Every structure is written in C-alpha cells, then in structure tokens.
Amino acid sequence: MFSSPFSVVPATGTLGAGDTMQVTVGFHPLTAGDHSGSLVVCCTGEESICTNLQGKAEDVNIELNTNFVKVEKTFVNMSKHTTMFIKNSSNITAHFQWKAFPTEEHENEEKRRQCSLLQPSAKVWLEAYKKDKKMEKEKGFCENRALLLCNKYKQDNAKVQADPMLFSNDIFFIEPMEGEIGPHCLAEIKVTFKPLEAREYRCVAYCNISGRESRLPLCLRGEGQGPLVELCSDTLNLGSLSANTPHNCEVKLINKGLLDAPFTYIPSITNVGSCFKFAPEEGILAPGEIQTIQISFNATVLGYFDEQFQFSVAGSPTPVILTIKGRVHRPTLHFDVDELDFGDISFGFPSTRLCRLTNTSLVPVTFKLRVSDDGTQPAVSSFDQIRSDSDPSWREGLHSSVKPREFTMNPSQGTILPQGHQDIEVTLCPNTVTEFCRKLLVDLEEIGEGVASLVLQARCFVPKLQVYPPILCIDDSCLKVPFKRKFFMRNNTHLPGCYGLIPQERKEDSPVFYSSPKPCGIVQPHSTAEIPIVVEAQTLGKHRTRAPIGVFGDERNPLGIELQSYGKLSEIYPSPRLIEFGMIPVLQPNSQNFILFNEGLVPKYFRMKIVCKPHCYVIEPREGVIPADGAVPVTITATLDDTGVFDDVIQLFIGNSLWSILMLQALGVGCTIVIDKPFTPELNLGYQFRYVPDGD
C-alpha cells in the first residue's frame, strides 16, 4: 500500500522461496514542498513490512517572459499580432498547454456545471416515458426513449470530461495552444487580436507547464479601433458677426483610417446651435477620402457663443466634435432726439410728436415699437366721448380692469434698409391724470428687445371749467310747454376741455323735464361754449332743479346748473322768456325780437321796464295794449357800453301789477375807443413847425 504522490510498480506479485524481486517506486508530486509516505508490503502468512518514503518537489525553472501582453489599436474586423516567449531554464523537457481556467479545480467545476446543463429535466424524462407508453399501447412495442436519453447524456458527459479545457476566445488567439520546450530553450508564442467592436478588450489565459505546481497567468489586452475620422480643424473662430445676417464657412472631414466611415451630423438643440446648418448632414467616407462640410449661420442670439457640434461615425464610440466660437452683435439704431416732450396736455385730447429712427448698420432690420408700462385697452379721446351723453363714464369715469393704451405709433412696425431711416409719429391720448415718463422701445425681430429707446415726457391735466350763469331762471313757464334757453361753459385755462350735460333720469313725479339738443361739446382754451337747454314744467308752482354737467376726466367733481322755474296756467306771457344777444360788438346797436301773447278774452294794457342798465337797451314798443286773443311783437335793441357779460331783466307789468320777467344776456366784445374821423385812406396833419421860440 502507498500514499500519493508515491506509486509502485508492480503493485502485486508472487515471490518464491529464496527469490528476490525489484520494484520501482515512483514520485509524482502535484505540489511543491516536502512529501512523505509509507510503502507497506503485505505477504501471505507473514508480517507486513513497512518502508518510509520521503521526497521533495520543486517547481522547475520555466517561466513566461511577460505576464502582460497589450496589442496595438486594431481596426475593427482586422487583426494584429504580437509575440511572447516561454523560457525553459531547467534541464528537463517540459510540456505546456494554454488553459482557460487558473486551476484544475476550476476546470472541474466548469465541467460539473456543463454536465448539469446536459442532464435532461424531469419534464423531458416524463415526456419520453409518455411517448413510450403511447407507442407500446398503439403498436405493441416501444423505442425505450428513456434509455436513448440516458445514453445520449452519457456520451455528452464523456465529451465534457474529455475536454482539455484549452483557452478559447473570439477576440484573442494563441498559437501554438500546446507543445514541448527542450532544456534551456525558448518557445515562441503568437498572440493575435481581432476586435469586432471599437472598444477595449481584456481576458486572461493560463499556461499549464509540467513541472510546475500552478498555472502561469497571461493578461491579454487590446483596443478595437473604429473608423478614424478627423477634422482639418477642431475649432472655428468666426469673430464678430451681425445678428440676423447670413454667414457661411466650411470645414473638412478626413478619413484617416482603413475602414469606410459612415457619418451623420447630430443636430444641436441649443438656442445658438439651432442657428447653424450643415450640408451634407450625412455620408460615407472611403479610406483616405476628404468631405467638405458647408456651414451656414444666421445668428438670432446676441453675445459671445462657444458651441460644440458632433458628427456620429458608425462603428466609433466617440463622435467627432467641432467647436465654433464667435460674438454676435445686434444692428445699431438710434433716434434723432433724446426725448419727446408733449408738455401740458388735456385729458382725452390726442397730441402728436415726430421723431426719426435711423438704421446705421449694414443689414436691413425689422422693427416693432412699444411703450413701456403702457396698457392694451384703446384710450378714449374727447372726440369719441362727446358722441354720447348717455355714456356711463360721464358719471363714473373710465373704469376698466385693463390699463389703457395711451400711446400709439405710426408706423408701429416695419423694415428699415441699411443706412436708412423711418419717420415716426407718436401720439399720446391721455386717459390718466398724471405726469408721464415712459420709454419708446424698439424691438428687433429675432434679435432682441429694447435695442433702442426714447424718453417720452408729458403732464396730463383736466382743465377747470365754469358754468355761467350758475342759476338759470325760467319764470311763468306754462305747463307742458317747452321753453328754450341757453347757458355757457367758460374755459379760462390754456388747455381744451370736454363737457357733457348728463341726461335727466326722468320719473313719473318729476316736476320739471329738461334736455338739450347738443348736450356734449368741447370748449377751447380761453373761450366760451354755448349749451342749449329745453325746460318743460310738469307741475304748478316754483321748482329748483339741478342739472349735472360732467367734465371728461373729472367725474368725481361734476359741475351743475340750477334751473329755477314756475309752472302756471298763464293767459298773458312773453315768448321767448330769455333774450340772448350772444357776443356782440360794443357801441354798436344789435336787435332781438320777442312776442307778447294774450290768450284771454279781453284786451290788456302793458308796459315794460329795464331793471339794471336801461341806458344800454331800447324797447319798442315800451307800452301798449295787447288785443284779446292776440299778440304784440316787441323789438329790443342793445348798445353795450363796455366789454364783458351783461345780464339784465325786463319787467312786464299788466296794469299796475308785475306780471312776468324776461331775462337778457349779452357778451360785449371789441374796443370802446372810437374816433370821429377814419384813418383811411390817409390822415393828413398838414405842415407843422418843429420848434417855435417863445416871444419876449
């Protein structure tokens, strides 16, 4: 009996009496170091003879000249190789094999794994059993598929066990896979690298050498090279560029490899990158071929840019990158003035100023004008406001949830040619009592906003208007009979004003109705406007009615006139009751007419009297008789002796009783100084001495 790593030959035999036999003890260690064992000889009927065995094992001096092999970059589907050596420095001939696993135990584990995969599953065994039973039932015999499966498994398992597990790889190849090395000799080993993709490959092969306990590892590394495409220049600096202006340049793609290179431009998604166009965007470069790429650029984003553009090359893991740099500046525009000052402007009255916008750049620009902090709701002008006296804004003002657009430009947009200009009208229609300080801004299409600006200044006021007279008397007005009167709107300011007599909200019990055929209007600076009003008494007695008058822009402080009337059933009455001369020259006679009516059945004696300034008026006839159911025409002539407003009263007496009154209104204009001779055609003063001495 013996213990490994020792062996004996022959292990058994017959020994005659007095004979001797030579046996050979072999020592085959699997590991380095000291080994010991015993050789036991067992004889029939005799005691066993035991002999101690000892041995020492050492690794033979055989090694790899390197444990790492790196192959140069190799184009995909092409191959490169390199060499290394196994060096035998011992005195024995050694056998070597290139293995896939580092130890025999790993090999056995892999064989067990493969055999377990070969073992038919329970489902396969069951299926074979069912088929056999079915065949036996139908034909009376079966193929014994289970036995066939078992035999096939044994055959496949034997193949696995017989597999030497040599190194095998789809990328790296070693030649020779096995062989012998004589004493003090070198074995040349060729390592071939053939990549399938453009990436790095790594693996390890293990050299099993007889005379050595462990296998020697050889690390293999290589990198697959895809198509090799480069740019003639990795960076393009375009310098200073004008916005919204086409620019062109080019770059060359060069295939420096040995493979066809299909390339595709990857579109950029950045704001600046989307302004670039490449042509062609795709193609195939043969080895050594050069492709010129045309680049067009129309900049819309201002400022410095540094963009990277990528070309994908099929079979190459990294794209070709082109960097383009530059700076985009916008076109230069300027106004001919620094600001537009509208000065003092009245609420709701449009005012226009002119300016000029000049394009000093070498490219055309498309512009659009806007005013900072301006609203969107169109502003209401006084000329629109006076069209309707029933507009709620007379009472409530311009109330809107949207801010008014008070500035308008003509034109508000357009295109200016290089070195050209555009005259612009800026109109302000203020709907806000405030001091304006805004900016007229110029936006350029696809370039930027507010590239040029102009200050707009203005002050908006509502002029203070006055009603004259504040009280309008309509005495002895017959019931249901309309009486026409006038009153005035005075404007002593330097701005125009807009007014409107607010319509009466009539009710069934209203004692007086009033209306106007021309309720709204505009009164110019330092002038007076005339407002006609029609009053109709509905009930008997004295009445005081307030008629509100709105001023556009100042709805919180409406003006008003008080209408005083006396409704009665009258037999004798004058018509009209208000004598208005209007504006008449001073010192020149001006006449108006009225009629005295007598609807009674008897004649009536009358007389009339001027109350305040009888010297300025002449009445014809001053007194007389009004026939029954008749009328008397009366002429009153005014000769005003001064400028200004003349208000007076005519008292009408029937018998000795004051029956009624008539109102007189006039406005004197002109000059109160006159000459007795005309200056034209000439004024001859005759000869005059320049100096006459005093006589002594």
TrEMBL record:
It comes from the Eukaryota. This is HYDIN/VesB/CFA65-like Ig-like domain-containing protein. Keywords: Cell projection, Cilium, Cytoplasm. It is found in: Cell projection, Cilium; Cytoplasm. The keyword Cytoplasm applies. GO terms for biological process: axonemal central apparatus assembly; cilium movement. Pfam families: HYDIN_VesB_CFA65-like_Ig. The lineage of its organism: Eukaryota, Metazoa, Chordata, Craniata, Vertebrata. Residues 4-55, 227-326 form the HYDIN/VesB/CFA65-like Ig-like domain. GO terms for cellular component: axoneme. It comes from Hirundo rustica rustica. The keyword Cytoplasm applies.
